[in-house]
Amino acid sequence: MPVPAYTFLVLSGVIFTLGAIGFMVRRNPLVVFMCIELMLNAVNLSFATMSRYLNSLDGVVFAFLVITVAAAEVVVGIAIIVQVYRAGRQMDVDELDLMKE
Amino acid sequence: MDILAPLVLLVPLAGFLVNALFGRLLPRRVVGWVGAGSIGLAFLFALLTLSQVLGGQKLDQTYFTWWQSGDFNVPFNLYVDALSTLMILVITGVGFLIHVYSIGYMREDSGFSRFFAYMNLFVFSMLLLVLSGNLLWLIIGWAMVGLSSYLLIGFWFERRSAVLAARKAFVMNTIGDVGMVFAAFLIFLNLRVLDFQGLFSRVHQLPKGGTVITAICLLLLVGAVAKSAQLPLHTWLPDAMEGPTPVSALIHAATMVTAGVYLVARMHLLYDWAPTAAATVAVIGGLTAFFAATIGTSQVDIKRILAYSTMSQIGYMFLAVGIGAYTAGMFHFMTHAFFKALLFLAAGNVIHAFHDDQDIRHMGNLRAGLPITFWTFLIGTLSISGFPLFAGFFSKDEIIRSALSATGSEVWLGVLALITAGLTAYYMFRLFFIAFGWEWLAHDNRHLHEALPVQTVPIVILAAGAVVAGYIPVANFLAPVFGGAVEVGAGAFIGLAALSVLVALVGFAVAYLLHARRPELAVAWRTRLGPIHTLVEHKYYIDELYDRIFVRPGLALARFLNDVVEPRVIDGAVNAVATFTLLEAREFRLLQTGRVRSYALVTLGGAVGILLIVVWYLGYLPWKSGA
Amino acid sequence: MVIGFAIVAAWELVTAVGVVAFRKPMYNALSLVANMLGLAVLFLMLNAQFLFAAQIIVYAGAVMVLFVFIIALMNPEADISFRPRGTEWIYGVVFGVIFAALLAGLLFNRGLTGRPGAFTPEVIAAAGNIQTVGTALYTRFLFPVEVTSVLLLVAAVGAVYLAMRRIR
Q1: Which alpha helices (H) appear in B446-511, and where do they start and end?
Q2: Which of B22, B592, C97, C122 could, after both became Cys, cross-link A101 (CB 3.0–4.6 A)?
Q3: How far apart are the first and last CA of chain A?
């Protein structure tokens, strides 16, 4: 394979970092959610890379399961955000501190 | 398994429990006779053990193992030989008589049952002390005896003076206890045993007269000195007279204060092996005997005079055991128990007759009013002064003789003892003449009446003992323990006896002259000897000295600790911990913001941390060249 | 091959930044869709055809569609200030950069460790990619698959329940 493994991995890392930074910076909960998805995707890329370069199926299977779980998580998360919206609260992550101690 | 010895122990303990738990509910009669009866029963059992040890046997019976840890093995064993049998006979015998007396003496006291409970506890403790077969249980008995003494001295606890006296006694006793415990440490450290059989067989492993054995004996001596009120730990005994008179009779005359003598006698093998320590015992005894006798000449409280007399006589006993005349010392112990208890109980009758006034200058002329008390007290005085045919003569004489015929520097102790005998006769008869008097004295106390039979009968029995006890062949009885008595030639015997009789007569004569015939001479001499008299009357100011050196600094230290250290350091430390926890908690609470962002930050920070660890630990640093 | 990778990689980076940076949430969502499609291509390059399909069908096709629907439904405005409140975001950025640097450092100087398995591309090609993955899923990874299906059930129930709640 002409493309060495680490380039994929570095790409994965960069995307992950971008997602992390976005997660820390944005205030709209939906956008924050999307950054989370971005991070999950980056990890999937990493899994697939390792699977290819180590001649194993484990990575691929795991990535598939990650997709599944991400789907479930998105469902529930969206439901919560919708509820927050319908309750009339601000769509602002900084304002939503109901879990405060 | 032998049950006699434990029975002797357990009966007074049972008496204590009954009176302590149920005393308030039972009628006085029952309480009194339970208390006295338990001691009487113990005396009967003690008589039975007498039959066991006649003929020189001894019994060392272990009943159970009390503590076992490595090679530290302390059994609960009782050691019955001639010495301990003598002790328990005296303790229970004289103790029984004193208990019976107390039924009458204490009959109007509100703490009647408490009194008998404590007295039984004391007897139990004392019996434990002398029957114990190992040093640890002896110390336990020792401490319990000290406790009982404290409880009984402070029996009338509403009186501040009594409470202070009890505390003083206890503190001084504790000093002695510390010495004993250290001695036990040393013994175990060097010989790995604490029971007497083992100890006695291993003593000779230590170098004779060496530092270790001398240290052990001196530490034991500290305990003995504290318990027996010898110099320099003697100041508690006169104050202990705050307790009821039967207490003074039993504890501070006949038994507890003689525990020190018993200790040295029991440990005689150790003291034989450490001549310096033994000499110290003798010197302390001799000096105390003299010193106490001098103070006794100037006191005016009837019980205090008797207290100093006790101190002095115990000094004689210490002198005896110090020079190796153990038999003489124990003989004197026995006779002293009789006549001292007698003196105290008779004095108790007098005190009651005068409605608790103890000043002898207010007394006098008691022959008609209290005849039995009068004559028995006279017998006691004659005995203690060493008049021939009375018990005190035989025992005291034996001590003086042993001292004078001893080799080396102990002779001066014998001379001192002789002088003290004269002083004893003097101050005792002084007491007798002033307090009891004869018809020619001024006060007319014919209206006073004698005490109850329950009080007079025991005194009469004790008086009989004070005469007869001198004829008991104690030396032969104790021979299996200490070896045979020292033989003295007949000539020396008679010569020394005559000398001590002479000295006693001189004392008597002086007392007769100064206090019976010509009281004005007494006043004249007192002014002549002015400063000396003041010194002696104030007990050589030793109490004041101790107060300056020990008590005041101690109180200052305690006050400092209480006012400064306690609130600032100790409470401060505890409060600091609490405050610190509070602060930390407050800090940590800030983490719970409820905002997603901060939680995410923490997670991210954690991820970075883990990566850092991976990089650091596995050595993957970006600027290193790869592998 | 390398050029193809470079193009896709660039596409990935651009769209990733787009997800983070756009103001209007709709643009963010669309960027994410584009990113996922690019990722699918990468999967293809990595000889993970099954994953390529799954990514497009499930992720880009269902999840992102949901996202887009919700954004459209709630009609959110872009009037929220971009600047986040508090100081945490600085830390976040800093941490993120450090994270990336460490990762890069880790990756640049090491080869891959780990035991190579038996599934070389040739072996996979012999049986067909999807068949191989499917077999693996239903034999070795049966338990995780079953658990995941339970998870999906729970998520569905949870979503229904949340949607039905009356809000005051």
Answers
A1: 453-468, 474-482, 490-511
A2: B592
A3: 53
Residue A18, CB-side half-sphere exposure with 13 Å CA sphere:
24
β-bridge mates for residue B77, sequence order: B62
Share of chain C above pLDDT 70, in %: 74
Residue C76 in contact with partner chain B when CB distance is under 8 A: no
For residue B560, the distance in angstroms to the closest alpha carbon of chain C comes to: 53
Q: Is B249 left (phi over 0), alpha (psi -120 to 50) or beta?
A: alpha
The SS3 call for residue B66 is strand
Q: How far is C-alpha C70 from the chain's CA centre?
A: 19
All residues of chain B having their beta carbon less than 8 Å from the beta carbon of residue C101 are 622
> Which conformational region is residue B539 in: left (phi greater than 0), alpha (psi within -120 to 50 degrees), or beta?
left
At B342, list the tokens: 């007698």
pTM of the model: 0.68
Query: Residue B364 carries which side chain, given as an amino acid letter?
Result: G
Report whether B315 contacts B300 (CB < 8 A): no
Q: According to the model, what pLDDT value does residue C56 have?
A: 94
Averages of pLDDT over runs of 10 residues in chain A (101 residues) are 76 89 83 92 92 83 94 92 78 66 50
Backbone phi, psi, residue B251, to 5°: -90, -45
Q: With 0-12 CB in 10 A as exposed, 13-18 as middle and 19+ as buried, what is A66?
A: middle
Q: Quick one: pLDDT at residue B588?
A: 79
The proportion of chain B whose per-residue pLDDT surpasses 70, expressed as a percent, equals: 92
Residue among C19, C74, C135, C140 with most chain A CBs within 10 A, to mutate: C19
Q: What is the dihedral of CA B463, B468, B473, B477, to 10 degrees?
A: -30
Cβ contacts from A onto C, under 8 A: 243
Total residue length of chain C: 168
Q: What is the ipTM of this complex?
A: 0.88
Residue type, B352: H
Q: What is the mean predicted confidence (pLDDT) over B544-554?
A: 83
Cα–Cα dist B34/B100, whole Å: 10
Q: Residues B208-232: pLDDT tens digits? A: 878 888 888 999 999 999 999 888 8
Dist CA B305 CA B238 (whole Å)? 8
List the single residue in B597, B612, B622 with the smallest CB-CB distance to C108: B622
